[in-house]
Write a structure and sequence with these properties.
The chain is an alpha+beta fold. The protein has 9 helices and 11 strands. The chain has a single domain, classed as Aminoglycoside 3'-phosphotransferase, Chain: A, domain 2 (Alpha-Beta Complex). It has a 4-stranded antiparallel sheet with strand order 1-2-4-3, covered by helices on one side. A 4-stranded antiparallel sheet has the order 7-6-11-8. The two termini are 19 Å apart.
Amino acid sequence: MYALDDERVLRVLHDGGCKADVLRRMALVEDLALSQPAYRLPDVLDVGEVEGRTYAIERRLPGRSVLQELGRIEGAARERLIEAYLDISASLGDLLLPAHTGFGDLIAADSIVAPTWRAYLQERAARNLSRSTPELRQVDPAGIADGLPDASTPSFVHLDAFAGNFLTDGARITAVLDIGASSLAGDRRLDPIASTVYLSDPHVTPTATAHDVDVALAWLRTKGLAEWLEPGRRWLAAYWSFEIDDPKVIAWCSDVLLRRQPSSTPFRSGAGGVTDGARSNINAPGHSGNS
């Protein structure tokens, strides 16, 4: 995403993206916005194509990404920002879903919809692993979702809830970005789990520190979600394993599924941020729209 001026940003879709993808995303966001959340959602002003690439011009939303802010903020304000990020991630399940039957993808091109949450988790992990690198295709998808809880009622799940997709004024979350093909009707508890998973890995959030992860883990414990962190990490790695053209994503998926013991959480702190002209150009584990 690139800033055009003070009011607008330009989003160029990845290869294979088309105008219909943007229109589906627009319709989903419009439905979710009816819930009138305390934060802003994406607002598409125009859609077009240039030299075979689809673009969208969107209203520029207030704030800097949490990913960037973690490159500069310190102390108690930093801890409060981590907690605010997780609070909003958990609240995404309050957004009212459009009419939807079953559990599964909301607008993905290769949509899977299943009668149960666990059936969706298993089928999606198997399908995405089957499209991954030769090494990751050898991962047995059976049991990938076994450690996650089931859900009786579907709620909105962003899934790509990493720090780069949340904007902040330094204290509160002002906007949530990149609602797209990774969005699900599923278990709302997955978003704050996913946010902590993404925060804890330097492939995904290089500006986070070990203390940030400690703050996030403490938040999970207070909400009764900590036991699902590692099962969530493995399922998310299986989910994003289809991103074979993104070396950082595949490195992360391989680290989780092939080399890491399930109970460990290796971490190194990072530094730096993203330039304002490309403030969301470091993507989450996926590209929010190509699963």
